Amino acid sequence: MTKEERALEAIRRLKQAYPDAGCTLDYNEAWKLLVSVRLAAQCTDARVNVVVEELYAKYPNVDALASADPADIESIVRPCGLGRSKARDISACMKTLRDEYNGQVPDDFQALLKLPGVGRKSANLIMGDVFGKPAIVTDTHCIRLVNRIGLVDGIRDPKKVEMALWKLIPPEEGSDFCHRLVYHGRDVCTARTKPGCDRCCLKDICEKNGV
User: How far is CA 30 from the centre of its chain?
Assistant: First the structure.
């Protein structure tokens, strides 16, 4: 089975296993997803979803958050870890949105990368989930699983994994495929315990079944 064939079959099976998989960060506006994805670094999405409730209650829009003292932001987001750097990035990002984009999140990948605290993973998440454009989100689950399955060979660098997957995954499938990898990585192909290969829908096409 070629990598291309394995990728298409994995997409098909994961789509059956997780038909409704989507972003597990709660948001109803693009700027809120920007904030949440920054807070999610080294923190669970579940905790982020709780913390941002207080943040948005106090600062309900881009202007309010841009005008906030970073120390006040830090006091709220501290439970997510790395509070000072995350608060600094969020403050700077909201100021940029306010001052350069009229409070709107740009729908251009390169423009997103120029926002403070936004890397390729975050920019791809915004492009796929907010704007419905082709995206490959290489988070830890994605990187672990595509290496195990055999879609990439021992590549750990997120950008290199992303570039490799662009060659295998149809553009319209990329965003949802990555979300489904998150669900599968949490439920079955876990990192901290032995993978649940006996109940994995990909076990017969996985190169590293049981490893």
Answer: 14
